[in-house]
């Protein structure tokens, strides 16, 4: 089975721009979660999608949004980028949710200049 | 709000020896799950072990075992017969059913010395 894939792997954007990151989960997995990893704040939960519905959301501003498609693929969007949004964004998929094993992708490294 | 604390930013262990990583958590939920995830250098995060809070028996996975003390809200990871490939960042995490956020601790960087 193919693992979780994330595209792009690296991204450089300018303050004020917006960005869309993509995540393809393992086949059959219906839950997709997103995390932000930074040296200062560590790993922080952004949100979880299950069957195209956001069922959980972390403590991030409204600039961070996401969606999930019928094939379980998910996208995450960040609008009006700030320097502090520079981070590794990890996507994880699971059969049923974050209470079970999550399989992580390699991440997208976003740099905001 | 859920919190997860790992008080050891770094630890080292000699190859073939045993090491214990500490984790404490706080949650108001009665039904929750605890995890240890491992993030090797430049590699993807993988699950090490999972514990269901309603189960008193400590989870084990080969060389990895936990000491789950529910009343003390403690969840330590013991790695026996440490191997060079165990070197990684280890994250303790707490999550639960629908409606619960997933929370990671700050991590413990484990070095394995040959």
Please sum up the structure shown.
The complex is a heterodimer of chains A (113) and B (114). With 113 residues, chain A is mainly β.
Would you mind describing this structure in some detail?
The complex is a heterodimer of chains A (113) and B (114). Chain A is built from no helices and eleven strands. The termini of chain A are far apart. Chain A has strands spanning 5-7, 10-13, 19-24, 31-38, 42-50, 53-57, 64-68, 74-78, 87-94, 103-104, 108-112. Helix content of chain A is 0%, strand content 53%. In chain A, the strands form two sheets. In chain A, strands 2, 4, 5, 6, 9, 10 and 11 form a seven-stranded mixed sheet that branches. A four-stranded antiparallel sheet of chain A has the order 1-3-8-7, with no helix packed on it. Chain A has 113 residues and is an all-beta fold. With 114 residues, chain B is an all-beta fold. Chain B has no helices and twelve strands. Chain B has strands at 3-5, 10-14, 19-21, 24-26, 32-39, 46-52, 60-61, 64-69, 74-79, 88-96, 103-104, 108-113. In chain B, the strands form three sheets. In chain B, strands 2, 5, 6, 10, 11 and 12 form a six-stranded mixed sheet that branches. The model of chain B has no long low-confidence stretch (mean pLDDT 94). Classes of the chains: A mainly beta (113), B mainly beta (114). Chains A and B meet through strand 5 and strand 6 of A and strand 6, strand 10 and strand 11 of B.
């Amino acid at each position: 089975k193919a693992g979780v894939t994330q595209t792009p792997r690296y991204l450089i954007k300018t303050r004020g721009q917006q960005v869309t990151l993509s995540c393809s989960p393992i086949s059959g997995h219906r839950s997709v979660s997103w995390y932000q990893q930074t040296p200062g704040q560590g790993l922080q939960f952004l949100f979880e999608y299950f069957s195209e519905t956001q069922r959980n959301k972390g403590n991030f501003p409204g600039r961070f949004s996401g969606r999930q498609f019928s094939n379980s693929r998910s996208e995450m969007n960040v609008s009006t980028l700030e320097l502090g949004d520079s981070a590794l964004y990890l996507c994880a998929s699971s059969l049923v949710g974050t209470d079970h094993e999550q399989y992580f992708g390699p991440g997208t490294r976003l740099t905001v200049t | 709000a859920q919190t997860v604390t790992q008080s050891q930013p770094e630890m080292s262990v000699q190859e073939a020896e045993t090491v214990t990583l500490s984790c404490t958590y706080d949650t108001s939920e009665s039904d929750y799950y605890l995890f240890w995830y491992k993030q090797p250098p430049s590699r993807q995060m993988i699950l090490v072990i999972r514990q269901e809070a309603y189960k008193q028996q400590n989870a084990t996975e080969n060389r990895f075992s936990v000491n789950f003390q529910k009343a003390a809200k403690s969840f330590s990871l013991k790695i026996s017969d440490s191997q060079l490939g165990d070197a990684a960042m280890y994250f303790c995490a707490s999550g639960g059913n629908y409606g619960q956020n997933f929370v990671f601790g700050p991590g413990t960087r484990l070095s394995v010395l040959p």
